[in-house]
Every structure is written in structure tokens, then in C-alpha cells.
Write a structure and sequence with these properties.
Length: about 220
């Protein structure tokens, strides 16, 4: 993993190139949590369709009371809709512990919240860390496939488990919610604009810093 300066330089270059992303695209913390489940294994465009279908009823009260089959139909566009309906129910049940109030959940220590989220069926580390960072103001760096792809290509040592990689990144950047929020969003933007599966390196703002380890990523 590069030193603190290099990771910060990557962040600053991306921020300068793309500007603040102002994530997560959601009106409420609960909508953000729902989006984090719906986006599993699908594109954001499909998530938007599902969120649109839920318009006017995107509340924990509705999700907890609607029958599974009805909820699954509403979120059909996001794929794996039957499983995701069950996951949404479980996540909402957990949120009920805090009276569906993000401000109440935010009073709890981040590590405890993370354990609680990971105990929910269908919530993995990436989803949990997204919810913690973007809905509950607890900085946990979100490690997704784009993060691994870009940092590996740039020359970072990414061996180990999800949490090993997350910890290495967290040690390389200031513990600042804004940076965690923007850095992950900027990585996603960069993966879409330049560093796709087959990258488009010409004109890439990170080209000078990049080892271009394209193979096996
Ligand atoms: S130079 Fe190429 S491989 Fe490196 S970050 Fe840019 S697009 Fe990705």
C-alpha cells in the first residue's frame, strides 16, 4: 500500500478532476440504506427504477408492514428481488431497534453498529461499510471491486481479506468522514470514466502515478 502522501495524492487528483460527488444519492438515511441493499449485483440505473417504484412509500413503516411478495414486485428491476425483499425486511427490523431514527443510531459506537449490521442476513462488509459511512456518519472505508482494481493497477499491495485491505487504506488517509465519503465515490467515478475492465489510460489523471498492472485485474 502506498504511504499516506500517495493515497492522499490519488484522492486529491481525483477530487480535482471530477469535483465533489456529494454521495450518497438519497433523500434520507433510510433511503440510502435501501439503496445499499438494492445495488448489490446490479447497476445503479436498475436501483433507480426500483426506488422510483417505491416513491411515496420508501419508509421503514411501509417496508416492515408490506407483504414480502408485494415488496419484491416493487423492487423487481433491481434483480434478485425476492432475496432483496427479505434483506430489506431484515435491515428494517434492525433499524427498528433505533425507532427508525438515524440520529439515535448515530449515538452508538461505529464498531458496535458494524457488528450489528454484519449480523443481518444479506448484509456483507461492503454493504455495512456503505451504510455506516453514508447513512450513519461512521467512517469505514468502502472497499469494492473498483477500489481493488484501481489501487492494484496503481501499484498498491492489496493482499489479505476485505478488512485487511480496508484497514490498510484507512491507515493511509486521515480519519475524516468527508474524505471517506468522497474518496470512495471518486473511485467509482474514475472506474467508469477511465479505469474500466479494459482501461482507457490516455488522458487518465492518474497515469503518471500508475504502474498499469492491468493483467489479472
Ligand atoms: S493509467 Fe490506466 S490503469 Fe492506471 S488508473 Fe489510469 S486508466 Fe487505470
Amino acid at each position: 500500500m502506498p504511504d499516506k502522501k500517495s493515497l492522499l495524492e490519488i484522492y486529491e487528483t481525483l477530487l480535482k478532476t471530477y469535483g465533489p460527488r456529494n454521495w450518497w444519492p438519497a433523500k434520507t438515511p433510510y433511503e440510502m440504506m435501501v439503496g445499499a441493499i438494492l445495488t448489490q449485483n446490479t447497476s445503479w440505473r436498475n436501483v433507480e427504477k426500483a426506488i422510483n417504484n417505491l416513491k411515496g412509500c420508501l419508509t421503514p413503516e411501509f417496508v416492515s408492514s408490506v407483504p414480502n411478495e408485494e415488496l419484491a414486485l416493487l423492487i423487481r428491476s433491481s434483480g434478485y428481488h425476492n432475496q432483496k425483499a427479505i434483506k430489506l425486511k431484515s435491515l428494517t427490523e434492525w433499524f427498528g431497534k433505533y425507532a427508525y431514527c438515524a440520529a439515535s443510531a448515530k449515538k452508538v459506537d461505529g464498531e458496535i453498529l458494524r457488528e450489528e449490521l454484519l449480523a443481518i442476513k444479506g448484509v456483507g462488509r461492503e454493504t455495512a461499510d456503505s451504510i455506516l459511512t453514508y447513512a450513519l456518519d461512521k467512517p469505514f472505508f468502502v472497499v469494492d471491486a473498483y477500489t481493488k482494481r484501481i489501487l492494484y493497477r496503481l501499484g498498491c499491495d492489496l493482499s489479505g481479506s476485505y478488512d485487511d485491505i480496508r484497514t490498510k487504506i484507512e491507515q493511509g488517509i486521515p480519519n475524516d468522514l468527508y474524505i471517506y465519503n468522497e474518496f470512495h465515490a471518486l473511485i467509482v467515478e474514475h472506474a467508469k470514466r477511465y479505469c474500466m475492465k479494459t482501461p482507457s489510460c490516455e488522458g487518465c489523471p492518474l497515469e503518471e502515478k500508475c504502474q498499469k498492472r492491468i493483467i489479472d485485474t
